[in-house]
Write the structure tokens for this entry.
Amino acid sequence: MQGVRNSEKPVLIIGAGIGGLTLAHALIARDVDVRILESAAELKAVGAGIQIPPNAMKVLRALGLDQAVMTHAFQPKAIEARMGESGRAVFDIPLAEQAISRWGAPYFHIHRADYIDALRDTLPENVLQLGARVKSYAQDKDGVQVTLTHGATLDGQILVGADGIKSIIRTQMLGPDAPNFTGNVAWRAVVPMTALGEHAPRPTACAWFGRGQHAVTYRLGKDGQLANFVGVVEQGDWREEGWSIEGKKTEALADFSGWHPTITTLIENAETLHKWALFDRAPLTQWVDGRVVLLGDAAHPMLPFMAQGAAMAVEDAYVLAKVVADNRALSDYQNQRLRRTAEVQAASRANMGVFHKHTTLSQLMTYGPMWMAGKILPNIVHRRMDWLYGFDPTT
Ligand SMILES: Cc1cc2nc3c(=O)[nH]c(=O)nc-3n(C[C@H](O)[C@H](O)[C@H](O)COP(=O)(O)OP(=O)(O)OC[C@H]3O[C@@H](n4cnc5c(N)ncnc54)[C@H](O)[C@@H]3O)c2cc1C
């Protein structure tokens, strides 16, 4: 199949999230002219952390972005699971050196604002256009044209919809359909470690299991000076989605009443608690229409229970840039990415069942063998992640 490249016009990327920004770097590294159109007037700091697993770090390293990211990132010593109320350990497996030796790159935690800043500040000038909300696109054999909401139009050779879970590019390409509400609501907060005293989270990535709910704690900042809290609760009736919806502390404390002091102390000391409903979509079978292609959450939104949504966008970016630079058909990108992203979407969904056991019996039957495996064969836990973290999209 023929490629669609026409080098006089830029590749137009819609959306300056982690996916769109990484794609811009990956294309520039291959001498492809790019322009990012972002609807927000500024790329604002979001008060939340994000995990950067080794599969994404390999891409950042290949693009020369690893140092800019690592300057602000915290390297967890271990990956842990605990019972939410008692704090009893389910497993505690070393991660720092093991990530490098087993999967070929370190595992990091970073504040989202620092991640976005690192990706944006290393871009050449005039690549990113803020305040540019795309309304629609048209295409013919010579190129694509996008129309912004204020009426201006821009021409490009290829259009990439990296515009997130509510992608308008996806809607125009495949028709309207709403994402699925997964029945989960997430609480989020970032709290200075100094406020937490003896109950500060350990320097690990820790999942806390409960009945119909779970929490995740980890540290942020180069020296781990911030603590990140995510608390997910099954709650069928609340469906507002967004980063900036503030929730009430009393409500979060009620959701995690009786939980370990690490969790309740984090909630008590949070200046702001954000809350939003979690959506995903069933895997798509088509991400490409002529010169238009989807990337990141626009193509494959997932529950955050594998901490891989942004990592998949970063992997997409590397693969798509190579396909475009080689002037191969965009369907080559789609074909390389469909299966992997669908597997990660499915694994993220499946983790809900693992994290949210509803009865003591089902908890014992799930976490008992995990505890045993962690004690006797800790390597098993590492091995179970090889397919995910060991993957290297750059080779
Ligand atoms: C609670 C939670 C925890 C998570 N933790 C992790 C984690 O630890 N690790 C991980 O890898 N992932 C994690 N994720 C997933 C991750 O946040 C997303 O998968 C990732 O941010 C998606 O990036 P993106 O660039 O595809 O989309 P987005 O980040 O949604 O970016 C889309 C951009 O497009 C812009 N835009 C939208 N419409 C238009 C338009 N019409 N015109 C112009 N611009 C437009 C938006 O303003 C936005 O800037 C988590 C998600 C949640 C909810």
Summary: The chain has a mean pLDDT of 93. The domain at 46-108+180-279+357-395 is CATH 3.30.9.30 (D-Amino Acid Oxidase; Chain A, domain 2).
